Amino acid sequence: MSNTLSITRGSSSTFDVALTDLNGQPLRWHRLHGAVAQLLVRVQPTDDSSVLSFTTTLNPNNLYFRPGASTLVIAFLPSDTAALPLGLYFYQVQLTLHDGTLQFPVEWSLLDLNLGGAAAAPPAPFPSTVAITQDYPLPGDLLYQTPGGHGVEGAQVRVYLKSDYDAGNMNSPVGTTTTGRGGRWLAPVLVAPGFTYVAYFIQPGSYGPNVSPPFFA
Description:
By secondary structure, this protein is mostly beta strands.
């Protein structure tokens, strides 16, 4: 599911973010008492600084919990985006509950800042153009090996959106392949850029299941 936001520069825009627990159920309102949410907008997710940053404590006009609901409201005011260059950005929503639990209701997703109306450029297509192999993002990062460092041949590899995997959506992998000699992938899995993924490995009856650390494409 895409969380892409489209905003007309220099205008007011409001978006709702559904807040759920680790089981995908709406977060009970009482758990939001004392919670703090943060919105980060960056040119690239790996940047050290953000072009916009709001919190529910410091920017209550931009970021607030809807009373009595499991919803976070993001409100962009005209002055927030008026000076920003047009183009594609990335945004993330973080939620820290009163007990210190950190959640990410929205992982890094696209924010399209445009002119709006007839002048707005059509949304850029984002086909599956990033090839994921055992060497993504660095050589050997996604090799499937035994604890002793031996490659597992003939294992299934399934690549999932992290959000789908976290929600238990095991029937909707982005792509699949199998491993050959040394635990290398026999074919790349093509994914869309701008999202976080995990690789799931299993050789039924022998190894796994194992899941890779999340990686951003």
